[in-house]
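Onboarding guide, step 5: your first structure request.
Type a short instruction followed by the sequence, for example:

Predict the 3D structure of this protein.
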Amino acid sequence: MQSLDWFTVIIYVILLALGWMSVCGASYDVEQGNSIFDFATRSGKQLMWIGTAFLLATVILSIDERVYENLSHVLYGGFMVLLLITPLLARDTKGSLSWIDLGAVKIQPAEFAKFAVALFVARFISTYNLNLSRTSALIRCAAVVFLPIALIILEKETGSALVYFAFFLMFYREGMPGSILFTGFAMVFYFVVGIRYADQPLFSLVESSLGTSIVLATILVFTAALVRVYTPRMAPFYWILGGGLSVSTIALLFALYVIPFDVVIVQVIVSLVVVGYLLYLALRERMSQYGLIALFSLGSMGFFYSADYVLDNVMQPHQQARIKLILGLDDDPRGIGYNVNQAKIAIGSGGATGKGFMKGTQTKLKYVPEQDTDFIYCTVGEEQGFLGSTTVLVLFLLLIWRLIHLAERQIYTFGRVYGYCVLSIFFFHLFINVGMVLGLTPVIGIPLPFFSYGGSSLWGFTILLFIFLRIDASRNRTRK
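The system replies with structure tokens like these:
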């Protein structure tokens, strides 16, 4: 196909080749001495998956692109039913009920459901010409995404469920208010700070938590920023805010040098005064923006103070352990932190240029668990070194940049929305997978696209990518 974006295809092929080499390095057993092309080995099986992926890509490109749009609702409904019955058909695999055994192979429906959800969301937005800046439209689109999230959580596969939050990056591109994305990042910040610094004193003589003080001060700053961006300039508000911060500072100095007491009480009162004034402005000026910002501030305080409860009573024990480990609250090098520590050692041992293809000692001696699936990036670091691991990241960034370019040149809304769904999913997988190997994000067990061993993930990513390439190849066709 002359109109096919061959630049993206070339990146895809290079990533597949590097990924297969990494699977070879991570899974080859020196003692058995089997060939890396032997279908009895994991490298041989991965080569088979790669070959079938090429066939699958060819089939996808040969189908009229309108078929994907016309059947999107059928695919979405079918996969939702499949996700619903998966726990009934699946066998327990390391605590997860997400894999269906089909004899010689196993499939993970959650990996394939991504393209069905992306297609349906794209059709949903394009058909009804939805404006995601409107709350009703956003709720309807979010419901389409939250359904598979809920069904996958029933499979006890939290990592795969979290991937679907990547769709909100596409929602932002299509008009979702930036305040919603900002709120999500703020909640993460409150949770991290609330858990990490909850028990640390602000100063030795002040009976206040460092975490509480940081969050309350941040809430005031965020509130001021939101008022500045989303409302007319209101000098009285800034006088109230400035006065509140001055009172908090004076109270802190008084507690330090006169009588020690809990400064948080003053900080909470100041925050409530600011929120109360915003509610007053909302009623006086009849502007909902002030009320929404006030709700954001109250919600921020409520979320912050509930962080401990969520961690201790809502999350599973293994999730609690991973979060405490990533925040430095626990040090468990032989337990929950073993994977990450061994991955760091493997990457660090590679040095600048690496130890060479299939010469990684950490991977050969099986020190890193899941080293050919979730932690395969450490194999890249050990065998190819800093240069090799950086090259892989550059290739992924080139792929994401290219997908942005392709999405922006789409004439029709359907193609653009689907393109942003694809690149959002790739970006999320890349960021989380590499981050967890480096100890920067919690270990949630999601594959690195085109690198991690397994047919479900490889096929799923191939379907996602090549449907978009097929849509892009016919972008100039007049619709009927």
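Each response can be followed by summary notes, for example: The chain has a mean pLDDT of 84.
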